[in-house]
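To the team - alpha-D-glucopyranose complex, inputs and output below.
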Amino acid sequence: MTWFTDARFGLFIHWGIYAAAARHEWVKSYERLSDEHYQRYFDHFDPDLYDPESWAEEAANAGMRYLVVTTKHHDGFCLWDSDLTSYKAPNTPAGRDLLAPMLDAFRARDLRVGLYHSLIDWHHPEFPIDLYHPQRDQGEDPARDMAEYAAYLHGQVRELLTRYGRIDTMWFDFSYPGRGFGAKGRQEWRSEELAALVRELQPDIMLNNRLDLGSGDFTTPEQVMPPGGVPGHVPWEACQTLNGSWGYHRDNHDWKPADLLIRMLVDTVSKGGNMLLNVGPNARGEFEPRALDRLREIGRWTRLHGRAIYGAGASEHRPPPDCRYTRRGDRLYLHLLSWPMRHVHLDGLAGRVRYAQFLHDASEVPFLEIGDEPGHDYLRGLPEDTLTLQLPVTRPDVAVPVVELFLSDR
Ligand code: GLC
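Output:
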């Protein structure tokens, strides 16, 4: 499990035929599209520019350490060559299994690989119509047999976990017991059996929390920044979008700037979590320029600041306003989210720091403690145990400047 909490930063990929609709991966449900209508995306899905090596390269350069990819989303479309359905990539103009080369490409760059798999299926004829189903206006269809669908679900999971080598995380999505008509949870999915199957086939896998069986091996807050971290000792991974949509969304303008994404990563690690950042590739098989710009800018920061992220976690020290701490062993990292005027005062650290430097260029950051400089006005009135860093007036030209503090105690 340590690989997971050390990795801290991963890439989520939502890719399927909804990329052709280019207006959210829930488009079939949102617009109550019929199977006949939705078929146009299947018939025209031809990702001629798909180059998973370049995806893996972009992810590695952004500083990401693992991948989670949608094998099947709620629309039921399968990225791999399943024996259990014809609703799969090899039968589109793509004409091949799109999953296998992706897993190979990411592994070749030493990234771990995880599979997102939708419990929900808006294509399977036995999946009972429910409150989210595109055909929900027809109401329940008593002829549909949940047991048959569950057998399909389990069978596909068996394929995924036996044909593609070692899989590091399994990310099921999602359960909604008691949420209205046709609601589904552990009984419908046969979650206990499914979890047992996953563990039997891949004993070292990390299993997420959306099977309606409690916390799983890790929990998955979605598109929120948990204010105080996630309670308890279960590892957590906040999944985040670039623009609010998981699937490729052409006309969406809700893009987060790179510096916000970097601050989100810092905030997450400072609370002991991982960040799984999503890209929705388009239907030609590419990351669009708006996504690439952000990944590359994040990469410029992580290249210099990885020591404060990988293998780092929460600190017991309380950071000054507009700052976050991350800690790894004898190093405490002060992330300055806004740039102060010359000094930053650190509570409780007097006498506990051997040396301080900026992380981006390893240049010394001098500091003062109360006893050292009785004459300084700016130290007056501060608690005895304050350590004051002396910062340049000019803010270093990095998205979030970080001071590395070498602690004298461990
Ligand atoms: C959801 C959504 C979805 C997305 C996901 C990511 O619950 O249904 O479209 O794949 O969570 O966390």
